[in-house]
């Protein structure tokens, strides 16, 4: 009887050993496969400071053994470019989703492409298309300017001669990237604090439009706001073709001919009148 029990114990121990060896070999095989299987991961080319927008020059794709890929690592460059580093990233480190903010989440500057500028112009219900403009829309800028030659003073005010008003299209097909004004109350936080950057501003509450323009257009628009008034003209989303527009003043608009200046009396008529 004792011999039979010893035999059963020996068989059980042998089976246990076989199972243990199998499990070890299986785990080892899985580990080796993980080490040999490579996966694309986005890594940084250089140190990246926090709150820095990431572009294609700052990252590269590197193949890393799957075992060493960090949880949440970004695997495609397109998922990183245009986003913002939430924390400092060291050179050669893997970029994870938790380390990124959505582009524009913290500052409007992240929505401005290289070589372009953002500029705000004041608008009201008339100049801002009744508040119906929205980020992503394209507009034309029309300026109204008054001209005149100083001719004297009256009542402490300068008087002008040859006065006229002109309307000039300053820029065409300019994109609106944000709006300024009073947001809807529902978009504010529960404690009455400031609303986040990207908020929905109801029609009638729009006070300024932020436009995406070139550096040269910045100068033109700033000057135009100082010497005249600007109005936005909303374009169709299907029409981006610029057109030639003339400078328009009140005479050409109303087709009124310019009055003739009185002609001086000829000298010979004065002499003949004297002879009489």
Summarize the structure.
The chain is α+β, with helices and mostly antiparallel strands and 276 residues long. The chain has helices at 2-36, 215-227, 250-254, 267-275, and strands spanning 38-44, 59-65, 84-85, 100-101, 117-122, 138-154, 157-181, 206-213, 229-234, 248-249.
Show the helix and strand layout.
Layout: H1 2-36, E1 38-44, E2 59-65, E3 84-85, E4 100-101, E5 117-122, E6 138-154, E7 157-181, E8 206-213, H2 215-227, E9 229-234, E10 248-249, H3 250-254, H4 267-275
Tell me what the structure shows:
The structure is a single chain. This protein has two domains: 38-101, Alpha-Beta Complex (Type Iii Antifreeze Protein Isoform Hplc 12), CATH 3.90.1210; 112-254, no CATH class. 22% of the residues lie in helices and 30% in strands. Mean pLDDT is 77; it is low at 183-199. The chain has helices at residues 2-36, 215-227, 250-254, 267-275, and strands spanning 38-44, 59-65, 84-85, 100-101, 117-122, 138-154, 157-181, 206-213, 229-234, 248-249. The longest helix is centred in the N-terminal third of the chain and has 35 residues, at 2-36. Strand 6 (138-154) and strand 7 (157-181) form a beta hairpin. The strands form three sheets. Strands 5, 6, 7, 8, 9 and 10 form a six-stranded antiparallel beta sheet that branches.
Q: Oligomeric status of the shown chains?
A: single chain
- What is the number of helical segments per DSSP (H or I, 4+ residues)? 4
Query: What is the number of strand segments?
Result: 10
How would you state the average pLDDT, rounded? 77
The largest pleated sheet is described as: 6 strands, antiparallel
Low-confidence stretches: 183-199
């Amino acid at each position: 009887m004792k011999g039979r029990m010893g035999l059963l114990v020996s068989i059980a121990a042998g089976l246990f050993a076989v199972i243990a060896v199998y499990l070890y070999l299986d785990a080892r095989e899985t580990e080796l496969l993980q080490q040999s299987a490579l996966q694309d991961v986005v890594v940084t080319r250089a140190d990246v400071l926090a709150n820095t927008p990431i572009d294609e020059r700052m990252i590269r794709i590197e193949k890393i053994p799957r075992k060493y890929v960090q949880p949440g690592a970004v695997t495609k460059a397109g998922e990183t470019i245009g986003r913002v580093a939430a924390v400092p990233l060291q050179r050669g480190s893997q970029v994870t989703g938790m380390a990124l903010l959505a582009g524009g989440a913290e500052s409007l500057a992240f929505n401005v492409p290289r070589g372009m500028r953002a500029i705000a112009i004041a608008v009201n219900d008339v100049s801002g298309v009744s508040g119906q403009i929205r980020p992503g829309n394209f507009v034309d800028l029309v300026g109204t300017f008054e001209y005149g030659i100083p001719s004297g003073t009256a009542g402490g005010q300068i008087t002008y001669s040859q006065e006229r008003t002109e309307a000039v299209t300053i820029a065409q097909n300019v994109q609106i990237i944000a709006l300024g004004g009073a947001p809807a109350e529902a978009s504010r936080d529960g404690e009455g604090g400031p609303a986040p950057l990207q908020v929905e501003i109801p029609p009638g509450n729009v006070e300024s439009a932020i436009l995406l323009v070139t550096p040269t257009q910045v100068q033109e628009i700033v000057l135009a706001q100082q010497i005249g008034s600007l109005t936005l003209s909303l374009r169709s989303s299907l029409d981006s073709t610029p057109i030639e527009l003339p400078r328009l003043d009140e005479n050409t608009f109303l087709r009124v001919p310019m009055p003739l200046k009185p002609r001086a009396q000829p000298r010979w008529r004065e002499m003949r009148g004297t002879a009489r």
